[in-house]
Amino acid sequence: MPGESPVARFYDQLAADYHLMYADWDASMERQGRALDAVIRAGLGMERAAVLDCSCGIGTQVIALGRRGHRVTGTDISLAAVTRAVREAERRDVALAAAVADMRRLPFADDRFDVVVCADNSLPHLLDAEAVRGALTEMRRVLRDGGLAVVSTRPYDEILAARPASTPPQVSAGPDGGRTVTFQLWHWHDDGEHYDLEHFQLVPDGSDWSVRVRRATYWAVTQRQLTGLALEAGFTEPEWKSSEDTGFFQPVFTARA
């Protein structure tokens, strides 16, 4: 069951605080939605596509795309995240159909969507080629012929050259106007491709700080590896776009069903 997985637990724990990773979550939603909307329009020439976000989290990308006129559906492995996404969509007058689902087992008929989005480094939670290929095969199945997959990951080709041990701290507005500090510690496995992540949030708590720590494991899948797996899953016309090309905060991979 999705709720029993380590990834589901990670995002269940993070869902209430996820927005604190952004200096301004709504402004970030707007920027990300604008960038992904441009990718969809360029790829399909459609102003109002049927979009599935199969790792919707608390709604950052899917709500933004809904606000730009797309017909949006969201799924995620975390019940807490999906519940919050629905609530946040309602607050912003976005009609969001949503369900809890593993991206390797999507609860939809074949040929249902024009676009499937899997953004914000969600796919690398799957830790081997078989699992990633399975998720991409499901994305291909629910896309109509000619539809578009849009995936974003961290720039792992660059990261693998350095294998950093941490991320720089980010400071954002927290509860009651206080500041929240977010950073990550990365512990690389001996294989050099996987790492355990400890996600720290320091939240003001009166005159002290409350420290919240969540843990997850990732596969630092390269662009070449992901491209090959997408081709094996039945996609064509694979293309990587840099952040400079799209305005999105991560490299974006697109492929045609």
UniProtKB/TrEMBL annotation:
- Annotated ranges, domain Methyltransferase: 51-147
The entry's keywords: Methyltransferase, Transferase
Q: Which domain of life is it from?
A: Bacteria
Using the record, list the residue span of the signal peptide; answer none if the entry has no such feature: none
Q: Which InterPro entries match?
A: Methyltransf_25 (IPR041698), SAM-dependent_MTases_sf (IPR029063)
Q: Which GO terms describe its biological process?
A: methylation
Q: Which Gene3D superfamilies match?
A: Vaccinia Virus protein VP39
UniProt-recorded Gene Ontology molecular function terms? methyltransferase activity
SUPFAM superfamilies the record matches = S-adenosyl-L-methionine-dependent methyltransferases
Please report the name of this protein according to its UniProt entry: Class I SAM-dependent methyltransferase
Organism annotation? Glycomyces niveus
